Every structure is written in structure tokens, then in C-alpha cells.
Amino acid sequence: MMAYIVMMAARLIELRRVLKPNGSLYLHCDPTASHYLKLVLDAVFGHSSYKNEIVWLRSKNPKGSQHASTRFGSATDAILFYGSGDAAFNPDLIRTKLTAEQVTEKYPSGDEIGPFADGPILRSESMGARPNLVYPYKGFTPGPAGWRMEKPLLEALDKKGNLAWTRTGAPRRKLRPEDDRGDPVGSFWGDIPPLNSQARERLGYPTQKPVALLDRIIQASSKPGDVILDPFCGCGTSLESAEKNGRRWIGIDVAHYAMTLIEGRLKAKYPSVDYSVYGRPTDLAGARELARRDKYQFQWWAAWRLGSQTYREDKKGADRGIDGNIYFHNGPYGVGRIIVSVKGGENVGVQMVRDLRGVIEREDAEMGIMVTLVDPTTPMTAEASSAGFLRKSAHGRLPRLQIVTVEDLLAGLLPKMPPLPQPARKQQSARKQKDGDQIE
Q1: Which residues does 180 contact at the CB level (< 8 Å), separation at least 6?
Q2: What is the pTM of this model?
Q3: What mean pLDDT is predicted for residues 272-299?
Q4: Which domain holds residue 136?
């Protein structure tokens, strides 16, 4: 936890530096870290910048908790909201819509137009006299306090069928559900359901949030044209919401897989959106630097560059010789599989090729491709050639094992492969949430 708080403190200081005077910061976290983060936020932004601790009901079925036998189920997350006195806020844009049950309860009466509730149309005497609002209408003249509106508005209200008369001849207003702006949103958000396993917007990303949650935050604290920055953008829900609501946006994440997921998401929802990706290697020097800095991100990037549709996402445990998979239609032989192995070190040898050949046999895959940062040796090339060709191929003679360098990939020189389906992404499955997710 201390390592996590130190990591967050360094980033919050930078976020405070780039935040505009009328900007706001929303930090989503779980209850195991919220109290620590609140202290850090008070120190960085000043305690007077604290606006709310929003409680989001992220689960309506907490009984599934692994600790349910020893404590109450954990069903809520915290969203810490900070901003200066000049911070933009649009409360009128974030009212909750009435449910069908609430409409029935709040509007119990009905007529040929629809449900309505009885409401006043005359001003209370305690409001004082308003001579300009005292006028006769359909034989009725109010007292000194007058009507609640001028005569043209009253006539329009009556024309819409929203003026009623009691048995005593007193006028009343019919209030309709469609004119109801809803209730103001408070600091408890129980009306935005979490993403369940069947949700259409679900991408399988472990910490994915519903778009509606980001819509509320963005609409409340920004206006069209403002810039939304998400420095932990994950699968890009905040970026989709920002694009949807007419905001400009910047998303940052350390995971290459997250970037490819966001690109696919934007392409599906907003095919004409214009954006740039920074930090992805575009030359050999950049690839070497990525391999030096983070071997896992290098493996994912190289596998993606080759055309992998699934990646080895978890850093823990042995990779079993597989850094990526490419699936293709193999005619009458069904779906074919190409295993991708990435080597980001400066020393490569023939044993690596033999190992990949063994993985192909073990997995009963059609092909294998090794991506190397440096040029392969002559024995490596010979070993790859000795693997022969696909035994069953609907696409002609295809080498069963090939080696391609990163330099070749950057130059667009791909190994000989069958045509790949587009789109070819295989959805990743979400892992179950654990207590350690906040720190991770």
C-alpha cells in the first residue's frame, strides 16, 4: 500500500500542475485505499479543494465476496472529487431520470393525455401582492397574489390540457412526467448499474467502468470543447465518453494491450475520429529502448505488430513459449493457429528455434513465427527451414516455422502467412476481482 500511495502521490502532483484553474479531478478507488488517497489529495490540492466523496454502488450482489462469512459484502467504490472554487460544475445536467415505479408514485392521477399530479397555479398570499399577475381567466380572478404566470403562458398551458378546475371552481395545474427534470444527483450514485457479464459494452477488461459513470462525471465538470485527461485510461471508457460528449481528450496507459483495445473501441464507435498514438516504437532504436525498459510491453508490441489477435497478458508464471496467437481460416481444415514467440534479447541461438518447434508440436498448431530484435544466426535459419511446410494448408505451401526481425516488421516485410480475417480480435476474459486490484 505504501508503494502504491507513493506512486500515486508523484502522479497527483503532476496532475495538479497541468490542471486548469476551472478544472476538476475525480479519483476512483476502492475503500481499502480511499482514506490514504484523501490525505494525499488534501496535501496536494489543499483541503479546501475537497468537493465530495462520491459513493458508487458498483455491485448489487455483494454476497459473492470471498469474505462474506466474516464481514459485510463489499459493494461500493469511492470517487474522490477535488477542484478549486473556480471549478466548473453543471448540476442541472446531472439529474436522475424517474423510474416507471417513481412515475406511478409521483403522478397518481390520469386523463386522456396521460399521468399527472395535482399542482398549484396560483401564487400563495404569503408571496405578496403582484398586480401585474392579477387578471380574469375563464370567469376566475385570483386574489392580490395573482397567478403564477402571465396570461399568454397560462393560455398555452390550458391549450396543452394542463389546466384543471376543482369542483369549487378553483384552478389547478396538471404536472406531467415529461416536464419533470428528475431529482438532483447527490453523493450516493446507486442508479448507474455496474457492467455485468452480458453487458453489450463489456470488453473483458478487468477494471472496465460503465460509460454512464464517465458521462455523469464529464457532463458535470466540463463543457463541450474542454480537454479530458485520463492518466490511467485502461480500456478507454473515459475516452469514449469524452468523444461522445464533444470533448477533446488525452489518454495515458503503460500497457500496450490497452492502447490496441482502445483503438479497436474507437474504430467501432467513432470510425472517423482523428487521434495520434505516442510512445509506440516507429524505428529500431525505439524498439530497442522499449525492450530495454519493459520486456513484457516489447513482447506485446512485437506480437501486435505481427498481427496477433490474443496476447499473453499476465506477467506472472511461465509463458510456455507463447507470446501471442494468430488465428486464420484454413478452408476445409477449420481454424488454423500460428504461435508467436518474441525474443527481445541481444543473444539468440538455435535452441530457441528448437524450443518453438517443440511448442508447435505440443500445441498441435499449424505454424510458428519467431520475432527477434537482432538478426538470426545461420544455424537458426537452417533449423527453421528443416521444420518443412504445413501438412494441411488451404493457402499453398507455407513454411511451418519462420523467423522475422523487428527491423523487417517496421519495414513492412512480413513472413509468409495465410490471409487473416478482419476484424480478428478474440475477446479477452475478465479475471475475478481480488482485494489487491487497487494496488495493481
Answers
A1: 98, 106
A2: 0.69
A3: 90
A4: 112-179
